[in-house]
């Protein structure tokens, strides 16, 4: 058994204290980017010039997270965009469209590539000062063109696991729901919002969540029932309700105070919403809410001071704080398989008792049994199983994970757990792509989160503070 001093020397190089609190700004903006031939949006000036100006403002204000809706190429113009997958951003390369004009004048480090022009792409993009994992796009299951042309464009929503600080992850959604007020429009829009709510219940279990976008809904509109599902089903708060309405939701069917553009008050309602919740790992609070249209005036002398989009941008300041009871490691592996998260099922004051891993060529499964008998197991049934029973006061404090490619997908190939007594448990096959995670002082591994199937595709560790 290694001495305490020896163990301290072993982990000093990789262990360090992560931030336990922070702030960020989030902006949701429908930028009126449909081709001019399809929709003028009653906004003066060239959409090309307005888009470039929007990017200039983004660079000036430096918002931490920006969700855009209705970002499409100009009519008749092609799409040529290079994607830097490793950096999670799009790189401008002869991409003559409104999306590209915004990016050409913006300077955010992380940016999503366009999904294509009108009739091809969803018009949804994101810009950020921080990186993310697992970005994907999903098309709506239902659309309606009863009072517009929603079905001509594959609108939908995007998802990313946003990482504003080490060990802090927020599941972030961006969407543009069906427009119009005909019965078919209402049905389609309510279906859209229900689709996002159901996705959150499957893919964001146990996680902090931030939803921003153009809902095309108002709480006061009688048939817009879908907007309320985020509160009733997902336990999300609306930043507008919290900061501008004193926590009171408007009554369906009541007279609406609709916003002018740019708005001069925050008590009016638009269809652009920002909703959120925290988790057992990280609390999330909205500290201010602003319709930020006055921050985006037209600078063209012919239209000086006029709006450059028909939507009020919605700007929210957020603060976050990590839990003193639970922490998590970064993720290892690729975004494949089904999401799992042991956090909501952890008992009070959990203590690890038995570790069990299975592996051969790759990491097939992981399992942990707690002192009260609660057991969490993930992955498949393959590989050779090995186990380690922890002694009294012994904790799992260090983990080495190695990844590799199988069938074109990144998976975890190897795991090695090291305890506070210097004992180890390892399975799988080590590769040349490995990362080590060390629990903060006073914490130990008690569960997992990630994605699995027959094997462990993606894995992060949940740490609990020991009494």
TrEMBL record:
Q: Which GO terms describe its biological process?
A: phosphatidylinositol dephosphorylation
Which ranges carry the Jacalin-type lectin domain?
337-465
Organism of origin is Penicillium diatomitis
What keywords sit in the KW lines?
Signal
Q: Does the keyword Metal-binding apply?
A: no
One matching Pfam family is: Jacalin
Q: Which GO terms describe its molecular function?
A: phosphatase activity; sphingomyelin phosphodiesterase activity
The protein, known as: Jacalin-type lectin domain-containing protein
Name the InterPro entries for this protein: Endo/exonu/phosph_ase_sf, IPPc, Jacalin-like_lectin_dom, Jacalin-like_lectin_dom_sf, Sph/SMPD2-like
Signal peptide feature range: 1-17
Q: Name one GO cellular component term.
A: cytoplasm
């Amino acid at each position: 058994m290694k001495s305490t001093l020896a163990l301290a020397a072993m982990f000093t190089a990789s262990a360090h204290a992560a931030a336990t609190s922070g702030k960020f700004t989030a902006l949701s903006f429908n930028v009126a980017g449909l081709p001019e031939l399809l929709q003028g949006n009653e906004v003066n000036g060239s959409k090309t010039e307005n888009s470039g100006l929007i990017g200039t403002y983004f660079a000036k204000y430096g918002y931490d997270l920006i969700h855009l809706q209705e970002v499409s190429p100009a009519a008749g113009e092609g799409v040529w965009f290079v994607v830097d997958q490793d950096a999670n951003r799009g790189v401008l390369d002869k991409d003559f469209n409104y999306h590209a004009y915004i990016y050409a004048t913006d300077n955010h480090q992380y940016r999503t590539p366009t999904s294509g022009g009108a009739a091809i792409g969803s018009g949804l993009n994101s810009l950020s000062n921080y990186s993310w994992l697992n970005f994907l796009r999903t098309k709506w299951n239902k659309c309606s063109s009863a009072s517009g042309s929603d079905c001509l464009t594959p609108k939908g929503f995007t998802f990313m696991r946003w990482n504003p600080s080490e060990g802090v992850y927020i599941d972030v959604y961006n969407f543009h729901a069906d427009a119009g007020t005909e019965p078919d429009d209402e049905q389609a829009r309510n279906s859209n919002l229900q689709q996002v709510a159901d996705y959150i219940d499957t893919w964001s279990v146990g996680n902090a969540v931030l939803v921003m976008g153009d809902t095309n809904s108002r709480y006061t509109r009688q048939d817009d029932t879908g907007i309320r599902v985020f509160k009733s089903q997902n336990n999300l708060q609306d930043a507008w309700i919290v900061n501008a309405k004193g926590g009171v939701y408007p009554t369906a069917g009541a007279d609406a105070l609709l916003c002018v553009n740019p708005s001069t008050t925050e008590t009016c309602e638009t269809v652009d919403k920002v909703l959120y919740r925290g988790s057992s790992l990280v609390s999330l609070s909205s500290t201010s809410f602003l319709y930020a249209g006055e921050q985006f005036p037209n600078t063209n002398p012919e239209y000086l001071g006029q709006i450059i989009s028909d939507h009020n941008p919605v700007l929210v300041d957020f603060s976050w704080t990590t839990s003193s009871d639970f922490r998590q490691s970064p993720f290892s592996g690729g975004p494949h398989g089904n999401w799992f998260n042991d956090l909501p099922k952890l008992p009070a004051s959990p203590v690890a008792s038995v570790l069990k891993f299975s592996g051969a060529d790759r990491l097939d499964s992981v399992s942990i049994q707690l002192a009260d008998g609660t057991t969490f197991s993930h992955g498949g049934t393959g590989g050779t199983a090995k186990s380690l029973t922890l002694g009294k006061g012994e904790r799992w404090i260090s983990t080495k994970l190695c990844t590799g490619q199988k069938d074109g997908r990144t998976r975890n190939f190897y795991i090695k757990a090291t305890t506070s007594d210097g004992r180890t448990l390892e399975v799988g096959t080590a590769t040349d792509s490995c990362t080590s995670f060390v629990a903060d002082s006073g914490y130990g591994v008690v569960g997992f989160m990630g994605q699995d199937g027959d094997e462990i595709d993606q894995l992060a560790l949940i740490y609990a503070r020991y009494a």
